[in-house]
């Protein structure tokens, strides 16, 4: 299929109490694993690439990375019958505009380091561009830290404030809204509990679909409760890389003579297919593709 706009899936998930999985990719094999898993589960899935991954994919040039992933994402979506969206995660203003021009069907602007007023102004302008081009627009208020293995102060994390969330969504016109409930990017163990009371307050006052970032470090029972309370898009990254890299490490450890990348990367791809399939089932999205085919 051609790349799809994710918003109809997310709105349906919001109505029915499940969530669409958004899966990060850094390599061709990870892209393939995501679309093949969606195909196997007859599920809609979001293939997403982060701002930091763009530099890697583009050999240090983020815009070149966007061009690479736009071409790869289109080909990947066309290789399966499951509905696939291509999403830019945590993009800058210029990256969001470029991604829309290149055919991404969903984008997220990250204004975390801006003042509230600047964040609103730029997000609103980008929403207008995205809407005109039929692209789903996501933005975030609050902080989901990216510690990269370093220590961080959990008590200092800026969580999404319900009153501010209402003002932000109304002022910007975003299609989907990422909320900070205590999750952290990049954690390798499921150690975080979400502020579900805060989620309830936001859900009661904000009508647009809500997004969870940093799910790999969140306890599964909290994710499950969060979905039941209104989270409709759940981002997954570190869990995928753990499955992929762990398998490659095992394969190379067992065969010191192995040098053909195809042989160990294929094993990593297979491992990631299985974890993506498991997350799709966990989020309740398995079998939900029929309406969007």
Keywords:
293 residues, single chain, alpha/beta
Description:
This protein has helices at 7-16, 28-41, 51-57, 62-78, 93-102, 116-132, 162-172, 196-205, 220-228, 238-254, 261-282, and strands at residues 20-24, 45-50, 84-91, 106-109, 136-141, 176-179, 210-212, 231-236. With 293 residues, it is of the alpha/beta class. Helix 10 (238-254) packs antiparallel against helix 11. The longest helix is centred in the C-terminal third of the chain and has 22 residues, at 261-282. It starts with 6 loop residues before the first helix and ends in an 11-residue tail after the last helix. The model has no long low-confidence stretch (mean pLDDT 92).
Q: Helix fraction?
A: 40-55%
Mean pLDDT over all positions? 92
**Spatial arrangement of strands, main beta sheet:** 1-2-3-4-5-6-7-8
Biggest sheet, in brief?
A: 8 strands, parallel, barrel
Based on Cα principal axes, name the global outline: globular
Distance between the termini: 8 Å
SSE string = HEHEHHEHEHEHEHEHEHH
**Low-pLDDT residue spans:** none
Q: Count of DSSP helices?
A: 11
Strands, total number: 8
Strand content: 5-15%
Structural class: alpha/beta
Rg, Cα atoms, Å: 18 Å
In short, what is this structure?
With 293 residues, this protein is an alpha/beta fold. Helices cover 49% and strands 14% of the residues. It has an eight-stranded parallel β-barrel, surrounded by ten helices.
